[in-house]
Amino acid sequence: MTKEASFSTEVGDDFSKFDDDGRIKRTGTTLTCTAHIITAVIGSGVLSLAWTIAQLGWIAGPIALLAFSVITWFTSTLMADCYRSFDGKRNPTYRAAVKSYLGGFKILLCVIAQYGAIVGVSIGYSITTSISMVAVKRSNCFHKEGHKSGCHVANNVYIMTNGLIQIFLSQIPNFHKLSLLSIVAAVMSFAYSSIGLSLSMAKIAEGGHPKTSLTGIPIGDNMTSMGKMWNTFSALGNIAFAYAFPQVLVEIQDTIKSGGPENVVMKKATLIGISISTIFYMLCGILGYAAFGNNAPGNFLTGFGFYEPFWLIDIANLCIVIHLIGAYQVYSQPLFGFVETWARTKWGNSKFITKEFPICDTFSLNLFRLVWRTTYVITTTVVAMLFPFFNDFVGLVGAITFWPLTVYLPIEMYISRAKIRRGSFAWVCMQFLSFICLIISLLAAAGSINGLFKSLATYKPFHSVS
Questions:
Q1: Which region, left, alpha or beta, applies to residue 57 given φ > 0 means left and ψ of -120 to 50 means alpha?
Q2: Over residues 76-95, mean pLDDT
Q3: Could you tell me which residues come within 8 angstroms of residue 378 by beta carbon, excluding any fewer than 6 positions away?
Q4: More exposed terminus of the chain, fewer Cβ within 10 Å: N or C?
Q5: Distances, alpha carbon 277 to alpha carbons 70, 106, 160, 295, in Å
Q6: pLDDT tens-digit map of 177-234
Q7: Which DSSP helix (H) or strand (E) runs through 366?
Q8: Given CA atoms 39, 40, 41, 44 in this order, what sign does their dihedral have?
Q9: Side-chain-facing half-sphere of 161: CA atoms under 13 Å
Q10: Residue 148 class from Cβ within 10 Å (0-12 exposed, 13-18 middle, 19+ buried)?
Q11: Is 401 helix (H, G, I), strand (E, B) or coil?
Q12: What is the pLDDT of residue 9?
């Protein structure tokens, strides 16, 4: 009997309230898992896809989007099968799954990549949320003062405002309490994506015929061959970031209620979530490129490719804010849980670490959780104020985490679980896929780093202005 189950028996709790691992019964369903996935997938990455297609062109752009979608779906199904170990024991976290099937240095690789990705995504979402907050104010200014007015607004106050909201929401203890927030966030993602699509179609209907190309922005007076290469690599990183959800897949799967195979439910939710996300990605990228051509902004709702109707732009950006506030929490939960579990293991007798103070029937306050999560939010907020570079930042995060978390570790775990023989056809195919994705990740990282260096050359810390 586990420690949790033993404790529940000692205090006289109804054992039926607990799952086979002694934890409070899980209540997740296909719907809630799909909502978590859509909340994690359709994030700020969708806003940069028009720019991404502009770098790659009509041929390579959609192919790259579809390829990343298929790869993410495939490796996610492999991960879903690794939720339970050989002995049937649950792996509640990505790290636990890697430890169960692989062990060794791959656990360290998982920890560095997963939690590094979570920190990066948290910073990226802090940047994007503030930009959308600012966009609401600028939209109203443009409507009153005219489109040629600068209407520039400092970002830092809005980054700090987002930080204050996240400090409050970060006290939600775990994934199991985030279902409602995820559903609201998923609805918001559909709302602003749909508004962006509608505005793109309206702009296309107006005519104007912006310049597009089969190969993207052509090399010429405004684009050198070297610049074209770096932008292409950075665009691949943006697509990788757009599909960056497998790092929280195991934690999402751990919310599924008992009674049936969790991997079946998770595979169904993954297929639905990624399919819906890909449809929106394709439409946003393709219609956005058709609307703006080679001059597509890095963020087509906050880069003001559209000015009117200003109230609709405001609604879209408010939806982005609500969605990314929720997405920040969905992504941060694995890191929150890891640190808190480690602290309870190391200092289990400390009341500061373990004592819960009931606030209401469904919520309690823990002092360690309050201090640790508040510190984390403040740290990501400060870094977002230091490096507010949307496209290059999300591209870098996507590039350096896509291969290890989305491809390499899921493939290696599945090979171990399925006992796929080294040198067999299946083994060779999986290793070839892993190698190709590694090369793509390295190229994308190089492009994003180059872009960051260019941005840093002219940037003054804490003086970000939209």
A1: left
A2: 90
A3: 163, 167
A4: N
A5: 12, 30, 30, 25
A6: 667 777 888 788 888 888 888 888 888 888 777 888 898 888 887 788 888 888 888 8
A7: strand 363-366
A8: positive
A9: 14
A10: exposed
A11: helix
A12: 42
Tokens, residue 274: 């990624």
Q: What are phi and psi of 179, to 5 degrees?
A: -60, -45
Distance separating the N- and C-terminal Cα atoms of the chain: 57
Name 306's Cβ contacts closer than 8 Å, sequence gap at least 6.
199, 203, 300, 313
The span from the CA of 217 to the CA of 232, in Å, is 10
Q: How many Cβ atoms from other residues are within 10 Å of residue 39's Cβ?
A: 30
Contact, 126 vs 145, CB < 8 A?
no
Q: Quick check: 285 and 53 in contact, CB under 8 A?
A: yes
Burial of residue 463 (number of CB atoms within 10 Å: 0-12, 13-18, 19+) = exposed
pTM: 0.80
Nearest to 315 by CA among 139, 180, 181, 125: 139
CA distance 73 to 428: 19
Strand-pair category, 356-360 with 363-366: antiparallel
